[in-house]
Amino acid sequence: KYIIFKIYLNIMIINKKFYNPIQYDSRILLCVFRDENILLDHFINYYSNIGITHFILLNNDSQDESFQYLMNSKENIMLLSTNLSYKEANFGADWINYLLDKYCRDKWCIVVDVDELIYIDNINNLIYSMEKNNSNICNFLLLDMYSNTNRDYQKGESFLNHSYYFDKYNNYYNINTKGTIGHGIWGGVRN
């Protein structure tokens, strides 16, 4: 573990630092991304509006304008870069674990992809509920949403305004309640 962390320390370049440093009550979002410029505006605004105070974003060799957009953003972002293989980094999990260990000990954090929104009204309400139940981790159901038109998604548009359809539960899904914490649901059109 520590050898991997030392290696990542040398390959992640910090391109932009936070305006405000991480504090005891910070709410931190971590994300690895590549070529997500069209989605970043809504993604950042959405999570800022539900209470995220700090964004740790790792650019994995984007070729679009994602990097420039985030460098010019007024949000409280730490922007890092790497050009190493996403697959060889355990599909980004090794990088995220390194960043969690380095910057986020004893902090409330969310780890998501740019096309994932946690459907809550306020992060502090979620944290309050988790603390009340002595929980320190929360799993969410990933629900793929689709558009019913051929109209392209427009930068800055709400994901849900563009894509508000989803698959109903059917025989393509499987539910496992034995031997797991909570429910395991998988399947659907990507199965």
Written overview of the protein:
Strand 2 (27-33), helix 2 (37-49) and strand 3 form a beta-alpha-beta unit. The protein has helices at 2-11, 37-49, 66-72, 93-103, 123-132, 159-162; strands at residues 13-16, 27-33, 54-60, 77-82, 108-111, 173-176, 184-187. The strands form 2 sheets. A 5-stranded mixed β-sheet has the order 1-4-3-2-5, sandwiched between helices. Strands 6-7 form a two-stranded antiparallel sheet. The longest helix has 13 residues, at 37-49. It contains 6 helices and 7 strands. The chain is 29% helix and 19% strand.
Can you describe this structure in just a few lines?
By secondary structure, the protein is α/β, with parallel strands linked by helices. It has helices at 2-11, 37-49, 66-72, 93-103, 123-132, 159-162; strands spanning 13-16, 27-33, 54-60, 77-82, 108-111, 173-176, 184-187.
Q: How many helices?
A: 6
User: Could you tell me the radius of gyration in angstroms?
Assistant: 18 Å
Structural class: alpha/beta
For the biggest β-sheet, the strand order reads 1-4-3-2-5
Instruction: Kindly estimate the percentage of residues that lie in beta strands according to DSSP.
Output: 15-25%
Describe the largest sheet.
5 strands, mixed
The number of distinct β-strands equals: 7
Instruction: Tell me the overall shape.
Output: globular
> On the 0-100 scale, what is the average pLDDT?
84
